[in-house]
Write a structure and sequence with these properties.
By secondary structure, the protein is an all-alpha fold. 65% of the residues lie in helices and 1% in strands. The protein contains 26 helices and 3 strands. Strands 1-3-2 form a 3-stranded antiparallel sheet. The longest helix has 92 residues, at 55-146. It is elongated. The termini are far apart. 29% of the residues are buried. It comes from Vicugna pacos (Alpaca). Belongs to the SEC6 family. Residues 1-10 have a biased composition (Basic and acidic residues).
Length: 784
């Protein structure tokens, strides 16, 4: 397309239209964009030659569109110009109105300035008017104002005479006159009313004093109490035009009621001293219910119902008592008696039927829902203090009882006996009575304190039993060393065994139903240990009687050891605790057993039986089952000494006749020991002497080839028999070859280890055997 065609395609601007100037760059840029868009459109439409024929149509249509747009623009511009014209006209009118208002304000300001100057000239006149009004009011009230000093003095006289209602009426008249004077005088206080403040305070103090003595006034002068309460109530409804703080006499009256109660009953704490706290609490036990009864019967009718006098009395007494007890616990260290008294009084007496729980008191006096007198910490502290004090006292009393008992052990007389002939002492009863009484006393306070004291009692009883056992050891040691020869050593040992039995049989008093099972286990163990200790000491004395010199150490490098094995009657572990070594050279009763003299004469064992019977004759003063235990241990001790002597290898039978004599001697000795202890009262079923009959069968056997059967039978009856024991018995026979010995000993290894027969205790394991001969001969021996 040529340039001429392009120029024809450019739209023309009609005359009269405005062209944007350079000061409107946005319009110029918009016009350029429009031109570019029009050129682009025209280029697209008329790009092909056949479309140029329609150019006239396109031009006329565009001219019409342009005319339409110009008409619309003119219409918009015309409308805008009319609005601007209207606004300009309104602005001109507003400007005229503002100018008028400004002129009016200027005139008003001038008028006000003139009125202020006129008012200043009238100020002296206004002051004169106010003074005239005040003078007129004073002239009207002057007769009454002249009577004010006399009325004040009269009111004070009424107060001093405790005519409180009349005094309050007079005071209110004076205050009313003061209010009537105060308003006309514009709040001016006249000097004549300066005494009203102290006068009102004096009346308030009189009301407080009457309320503080409510209990006494209710009995002696109830009218005065009623007057004081009415004054407080009437004054509570007083209104005043003056800005004064309320006197609040009602609250002062209630506080005075409470303070009066505190002052009367809790003004001073009890002084430290024996019985002082108990007397103070007893006085409160009597006074507090009487005070509540007085409040309900006399004070409550004198007061309005909203005072709730009985409830106020009860709560005041309770809180004051609680605070007083807290101060008492902080300032004073209480002993056991005072601690018990306070705990029992606070937990039981105070809320009990004797005091606050009395049926004579109404429901308003109930304080059970209030805080307790003693907190949990207070109760815990008091219980701990009580237990500590009681424990110290119990320890002291038990030590005194033990010292008194130990002092009697050295007497020239035998122990005291009861009507049945048994050794007797009041010590066990005293000990249990002390402990039981303390537990019973603690149960009067609370279960927790009872449990604590019960635990303490068991602990102290265990400690007492240990001290008792130690005292017995010292007693025995001093006697055996010769430092304190006791004429009746064994009888007093037997008496202590009765003490132990008495404690064991009466121990149930320390195990009520609420005690957990097993709580007495430590005490029972201590009692068992004491019984074992006493039995050991008695058996040591028996061995000394049999002239067996004992030493107190186990495992001495030379010498033989005597063992006491576990007892089925309450002496567990005696073998572990009582092994003794003695010198074999000091055994005149068992040194010749077995021997040729022993084969031919029963005199050796008769001496043992005689001394044993003489030693055990005091056992009749011992109660069952301890006496059976002692007899069983004594018989066992004698049999063990017999077996020990038999195993020493002192005798070798020379032939069948001597073996027969030895077997017969064993039978006779077993019968003699059985008869001895049956005569002493020991049951035959628990005797150990039948072991001699079993050994007799081993010696009485004529055919050595059958020894294996006898040894097996011996093992079946006494599983603790060893090869050394059998070898010692075979040596006693004197006719056993090496092969026969080996065959007999091999029977001990055949089959499983048999169980001991029921009720039979071990014997051979407690009997030592002689050391085996050396394996080689010395050059100077018979083998040389």
């Amino acid at each position: 397309m040529d340039s001429a065609a392009k120029d024809k395609m450019k739209p023309t601007i009609p005359p009269g239209s405005s062209c944007p100037g350079p000061e409107w760059p946005e319009q110029e840029r918009a016009e350029q964009l429009a031109r570019g868009a029009a050129l682009k459109w025209a280029s697209g439409i008329f790009y092909r030659p056949e479309q140029l024929a329609r150019l006239g149509q396109y031009r006329s249509r565009e001219v019409q569109r342009t005319c339409s747009l110009e008409a619309r623009i003119k219409s918009v511009v015309q409308s805008y110009l009319e609005g601007v014209k209207t606004g300009v006209r309104q602005l001109a009118q507003a400007l005229e109105a503002m100018q008028g208002v400004r002129e009016a304000l200027s005139q008003a300001h001038g008028l006000l300035r003139g009125m202020a100057e006129a008012a200043q000239t009238l100020e002296p006149l206004r002051e004169q008017v106010v003074q005239h009004k005040q003078l007129w009011a004073l002239s009207q009230l002057l007769p009454r104002l002249r009577a004010v000093p006399a009325a004040v003095a009269h009111t004070q006289t009424l107060i001093d005479a405790q005519r409180l209602l009349e005094a309050y009426v007079s005071l209110r008249e004076l205050e009313q006159l003061q209010e009537e004077t105060w308003a006309p005088l514009g709040g001016l206080e006249l000097p004549v009313f300066e005494g009203l403040g102290p006068l009102a305070e004096a009346l308030g103090q009189a009301v407080e004093a009457a309320a503080g003595a409510a209990g006494r006034l209710a009995r002696e002068d109830p009218a005065l109490l009623v007057a004081a309460v009415r004054v407080a109530e009437v004054d509570a409804g007083r209104t005043t035009s003056r800005e004064q703080a309320p006197r609040d006499w009602r609250q002062r009256c209630l506080r005075a009621l409470q303070e009066g109660l505190e002052r009367i009953h809790f003004g001073t704490l009890p002084q430290p001293g024996p019985g002082a706290l108990a007397e103070w609490l007893e006085a409160l036990r009597v006074a507090l219910p009487a005070e509540l009864a007085t409040a309900e019967a006399l004070v409550a009718p004198c007061c309005p119902p909203q005072y709730k006098v009985v409830q106020l009395w009860a709560h005041t007494l309770h809180s004051s008592l609680r605070r007083c007890l807290q101060q008492l616990l902080e300032r004073t260290e209480l002993g056991a008696a005072d601690t018990f008294t306070l705990l029992h009084w606070a937990l039981h007496v105070y809320l009990g039927p004797e005091m606050m729980g009395s049926l004579e008191l109404g429901p308003e006096a109930d304080v059970s829902h209030l805080e307790p007198l003693l907190t949990l910490e207070n109760v815990e502290q008091l219980e701990a203090t009580f237990v500590a004090e009681v424990q110290a006292s119990v320890t002291q009393w038990l030590q005194k009882a033990l010292d008194g008992e130990a002092a009697e052990w050295g007497r020239e007389q035998e122990p005291d006996t009861d009507p049945s002939g048994f050794y007797h002492s009041p010590m066990p009863a005293i000990v249990l009575q002390i402990l039981e009484e303390n537990i019973r006393v603690a149960s009067m306070v609370s279960e927790s304190l009872q449990q604590r004291v019960h635990d303490m009692a068991l602990s102290e009883l265990s400690a007492f039993l240990r001290s008792f056992s130690d005292a017995l050891i010292r007693f025995s040691r001093d006697h055996l060393r010769g430092e304190a020869m006791v004429p009746h050593y064994v009888p007093y040992l037997l008496a202590t065994l009765n003490h132990q039995s008495a404690l064991s049989s009466s121990l149930s008093v320390l195990q009520p139903d609420w005690v957990a099972p097993g709580a007495l286990a430590p005490v029972e163990a201590a009692l068992d240990e004491l019984q074992r200790r006493i039995c050991r000491l008695v058996l040591e004395a028996l061995l000394l009687e049999l002239q067996v010199r004992l030493q107190v150490e186990v495992g001495v490098r030379v010498g033989d050891t005597v063992y006491y094995e576990e007892s089925p009657r309450g002496m567990p572990g005696l073998n572990r605790l009582s092994s003794r070594v003695y010198d074999p050279c000091s055994q005149p009763l068992f040194a010749a057993l077995p021997s040729r003299q022993w084969l031919s004469s029963p005199e050796l064992l008769e001496g043992v039986c005689e001394r044993t019977a003489r030693f055990c004759q005091d056992f009749r003063h011992v109660r069952n089952p301890a006496v059976q235990l002692l007899l069983a241990e004594a018989e066992r001790t004698v049999v063990l000494q017999y077996l020990r002597a038999l195993m020493q290898g002192r005798l070798v039978c020379r032939g069948a006749d001597e073996r027969t004599q030895a077997a017969e001697r064993l039978r006779q000795d077993a019968a003699q020991l059985r008869e001895l202890f049956l005569g002493l009262g020991l049951e035959e079923s628990v005797q150990c002497a039948p072991v001699l009959l079993a050994l007799r069968e081993l010696l009485n056997l004529r055919d050595p080839t059958l020894l294996g059967l006898e040894v097996a039978g011996l093992r079946q009856q006494f599983p603790d028999v060893s090869e050394e024991h059998v070898s010692a018995l075979l040596d006693l026979r004197g006719d056993v070859s090496r092969e026969q010995r080996l065959a007999a000993l091999s029977s001990l290894q055949v089959g499983p280890q048999p169980s001991p027969p029921t009720g039979r205790r071990a014997l051979f394991s407690l009997v030592p055997t002689p050391a085996p001969p050396p394996s080689s001969c010395l050059p100077s021996g018979s083998c040389a």
